[in-house]
Amino acid sequence: MLRAVSDNTQEDVPDSVAGNVALIARGDCTFVQKITNAGAKGAVAAMIYNNLEAGVASGTLGGVNDLIPLGGLTQADGLALAGLIEAGETVTSSGTYWAYVTDATSHNVIATSKYGDPDNVLFLGAHSDSVDKGPGINDNGSGSCGILTVAKALSKYRTNAQVKFAWWTAEEEGLLGAEHFVNTSTPEDLAKIRLYLNFDMIASPNYFLGIYDGDGSRFNLSGPPGSDVAEHLFEDFFTARNLTTFGAEFNGRSDYGPFLDAGVPCSGLDTGADGVKTEEEQAIYGGIAGETYDQNYHSAADNFTNLAHFPFEINAKAMSHVVATYAKSWEGFPARLPSNTTAVTRRHLHPRSSGVPKRHSCGVNDLLEY
Q1: Helix 143-154 and helix 309-328: axis angle, to 10°?
Q2: Is 171 one of the annotated active-site residues of the chain?
Q3: DSSP of 209-242, one letter per residue?
Q4: Hey, which of 7, 137, 147, 334 would disulfide with 225, CB 3.0 to 4.6 Å?
Q5: pTM
Q6: Which residues are registered as beta bridge partners of 110?
C-alpha cells in the first residue's frame, strides 16, 4: 500500500510507512535523503512525485541505488494519490521496478593559472553537460561561460594564489565529474584548496539573486570555516550596488557537494532552478510569482533566447570581484586545517528568526571590475 510521508528528517516519516511504499513530494531535500529517511522507517520502496507540471519526477542519486527501489510520478498523479490517501482510502501499488547500469567515458576539463602559490588554491567550477531533453544554455552554459570569461580576463594578470578552473562532466548524472576529482585527490592536495566556488545556473529567466548560505543563517546548514567569509564577500559586492540577495540553500545539490563532504570551504551563486518565485522576490526583481525560477529547466526551451541578461552580467562581475580579491590575498580568510579535509563538516545552526532577505552591510573594500 501507499503511504504519504513528509521527509525533511527521519522523524517526519511516520511509523506506518513500514512495509509500505512511501509517496513523497519532490523538494526540500535530495532524492537520496528522501529514500534514506523512508527506508530507515521500513518502507519497501518509494515514489516521488514532481513539484511542478514538468513530467515525471526524475533526479540523480550520485551512484548505484543500494537503498530502496525508487520510481517517479507526475505532479498531477502524485497529488491525486495523496488526495485519496488523505481521504482515508486504501491505495495499493503493484509493478516492477527496474534499472540499467552502463559504462561510458567523459572528461573533466581543468585549467590552472601559470602563477600563484600552489599551496593556496582558489578553485572555480561549473558543469559543462546538460540533460538529454535540451541544450542546457542556462543549465549550465551560463555558469560555464561565466568562469571561462573570468579565466580569459585573469590570463592578463599575475596572481599570488594559484587559481584553478574546472568544467565538470556528468553533473546531471549525479555530480560524477566533481566526485571523481575529489575521490582521486589526496587529502594533502584537497587541503591546499582554500576555497571552491561553484556557478550553476546564473541567468535564470525568472531569477532571484542567490548566494550559497555558507553561514547557515537562512537554511540552518553551514559549510566548513571560510564558507561564511566568502558568502559575506559576495554579499558586500551586491550591497555596494544596492542589490538585494537571498541565501540559496547549501544542500550540496551541485558540484560543490563532494568538496563540502571533503571539508573544503565552498561558496557560489545561483539564480534558481525548479523552485517557485515568491511575491516578495517578484517585488524586488520583477518576473512572475508562483512560477519556477527557470520555466525552461531541463527542457528543450533552455536555449539562447531564454536567458536573463542582467543576472548573467552582475553575477559574472561578482565572480570577478571575489577572484580578484582572493587571487591577490587571503587576508581575513581562515587557514585550512588538516582535520577539515576528511570529516563531513556541514552542521546545523539555530534557524533565523526573520524571513527577510539577507543583506550584509559591512564595509566594502575597493572593487576591481572586469
Answers
A1: 40
A2: yes
A3: -EEE-TT-TTTSEE-STTHHHHHHHHHHHHHTTT
A4: 334
A5: 0.78
A6: 166
